[in-house]
Structure formats: C-alpha cells, structure tokens
Amino acid sequence: MKKEDITGLIVYLIIIVLAIVFGLTVLQAHAKPGETTLTGFAYVMYIIGSVLGGAIFNSILFEVAHVLGAKIGKYVILSVNILGLCFYKAGEKTKFKFASFDGLTGETKIVPKEGMVEKANPYPYLFFGSLFFAVEAVAVMVTFSILNGTNDPAMKDVAYALLTIGAIGLVVLLYNIIPMRVDSITDGYRLTMVSNPKNRLAFNELLRVQYEVEQGNADIEVRVFEEITDFTADLNLNHVYALLDKKSYKEAEEILDKIISAKANISAKVYIRAVAQKVYINLITKSIEESREYYDKEVPVAERREISNDVSMASIRAYLLMSGLLDKSRSECIIALNNVYRAFKHTPKNRQKTEVALFNEALDKVVAAHPDWELEGYKLQISEK
C-alpha cells in the first residue's frame, strides 16, 4: 500500500472518530427532553438535514475562498466545481456541466494571468480556504452560545443545527490543512511545497502547461527544472512527452533518470510513471537482452506490480511491453489492453495523437513477437469527431 493511501486511511479514520464523538456527546445532549422540539424520526431527519446543509454550505464557502484568493494572487479562474456541479468558462460565457473533481468537496481550477507565471502568488488561493473556515468557526461559536443560552427549545434546535454545520466545516478544514499528499492534493500539501521559491515557479508553470494541453495547443514550450520535487517532476514529465513524440529518446531518458533518482522527494504516482516511461523507452529502443538486464536489476517486483495497477497510458504501454516481450504472458497483455480505453479517455486531446502513436508502436512490437496471440484489434485510433 502506498504511503499516501495509508495517510488517507488515517485521515478518514480520524474524521469518522470525530463524527462518532460529536454524535455521542454533543448531539446526544441536545436530544434530551426539554432541549429540543423534535423526537424520533423527526430528530433523525433534523440531523441528516443539518449534515447535508453543512456539506453544501462549507463546499460553497471553500470554493468562494479559492476564487477570491486566486483573484488576489493574479490568476484567471477556469472552472469552479462544487460537489460535482462544475461551472466553467467557454469563451466569454459561463457554462455548466457535471464533472469529477480532485478534492474532498470540490475544486477550483486556475491559471496565471498572461505574463504572470513568475509573479502570480499562490498563497492567497491556498490559504483563504483555511482562513474562511476559521472565521466561520468563530461566527458559529458566538451564535451558538447566544441561541443555546435561551430557554427556548426551538432556538436550541437552530443553535445545534449551526453547530453541526460548523463541525462539518471543521472536518473539511482538518482534511484541507494536512501537509501531506493523500487521495487528493490538499492546500496544506501545496502550501508546504510552494514555500520553496522554485516550487512556486513550478506550481505556476505546471498550471500554465496543463491549461495549454487542455486547450489543445501544439508545440508547448515546457521549462525543465533541475531540482526535482512533485511539481517539477510533473513538469519534466510533460517535456518527456514532447521528446517521445520527436523520438528523442536519449534526452527523455536523461530527464527520467533525474526524476527516478529523486524518489524520496516525489509522490509514488509520479515516481512509478517515470519508471514506466523508462521501461517503455528501453523496450522500444534496445534489444530484449539489454532491456531484461535493466528490468531485472532496476525494476523490483513491487514496482512492476505498481505499473500493472496504474491506469495511465504511460504505465499501460510499459505493462504491455513487459508482459509481452519479457514475461511472455498473453493473459497479462489482455489485462493491460482491457484498461487502455479507460486510460485513453482521460488523456488530454492535445496528447492523444502522440499517445496513439506510442501505444500502437508498443502493441506492434508485441504482435510481431507473438503473431498467434491475435492482439491486432486493440490498436487505438484518433476519433474524427
């Protein structure tokens, strides 16, 4: 299990424990006769409504904080996603769609304003969520104290509903300020990273590159960073793609070697995709004997398993070649091929043409080695739509 998976499990366990403690102490005290106007099913619905209201209110508050912080930091707002409801810019118009998001309750995507990559300040964008929750906490506690101090059970119901909303906000805050990578990238994690000025520049550059890729722009100039962190490694991997497209394998390997050697400074996902790209280059450009020597010496079984489990085009290409050329396992090739369409679906449009060529080249090598496996039908094609 990856380090971030373990961290994520611990975080969610803490959240569950806090929820149980809140229910058995605070809410149980409120449920006593004379403290509330509600009983039985009505009280259960009151709690459910308060929790849902808290989730919605705090999700909106969090993304409003992100939007304001981004504007202060000199960024352009690309989209705002609140619990899957995504509002995004299409030209001069704001449109709506349902979309997934990277976060606990939502996500606000941004890009530095034109000419501001080196000057845009990510701190307000990353810090305002926590600041707004702190203000909310103070407001909730003051209002709760006033309303709960009355002898009116109806006012106490309002007070405890507000307290539940504040408790949901606290949960979101605790998740958001964790200075480690969990199942999503938290503001706390980003804040620890951008405290390094080089990472701050890499953060902005990565936002710019991701935006250019999503817009379908070709020939994107990507800055290569010598100091390897998660942000700089992500950027360097973008440059690796450009080099693979040009078949500049030696230059790509040099960048990959620097990322792989900095394993302690990057996340497991970034690391394993760099390893996968290296395996791919070896099997595409070198003899089976040379590739096997690298594979046996430099790619331990645990990392091979991580590559096989990672649903990304980089890892699937490597897994296909590993299974077909080194392990000679048709069943493992089929597992890789059955995941390729899911991975390709999430490939940015600007990168699809390159990825089709890279994947089909890998498949051709396996087909040539095992023509009786009948794998030709798995070739990818660019949709004309």
Quantity of strands, as a count:
4
**Structural class of the secondary structure composition?**
alpha+beta
Number of helices: 14
Largest sheet: 4 strands, antiparallel
Shape: elongated
Distance between the termini: 40 Å
Q: Which regions contain 5 or more consecutive residues with pLDDT less than 50?
A: none
How confident overall, as mean pLDDT?
Answer: 89
- The number of distinct structural domains comes to 2
* Succession of helices and strands: HHEEEEHHHHHHHHHHHH
- Percentage of residues in helical conformation: 55-70%
Note the beta-strand portion.
Answer: 5-15%
Q: Could you give the order of strands across the largest sheet? A: 3-2-1-4
What is the C-alpha radius of gyration, as a whole number of Å? 25 Å
Could you characterize what this model shows?
The chain has 385 residues and is α+β, with helices and mostly antiparallel strands. It folds into 2 domains: 3-190, no CATH class; 226-378, no CATH class. Helices cover 66% and strands 7% of the residues. It is built from 14 helices and 4 strands. Strands 3-2-1-4 form a 4-stranded antiparallel sheet. β2 and β3 (93-98) form a beta hairpin. α2 (40-72) crosses α4 (153-176), α6 crosses α7 and α8 (249-261) packs antiparallel against α9 (268-285). The longest helix has 33 residues, at 40-72. The two termini are 40 Å apart. The model has no long low-confidence stretch (mean pLDDT 89).
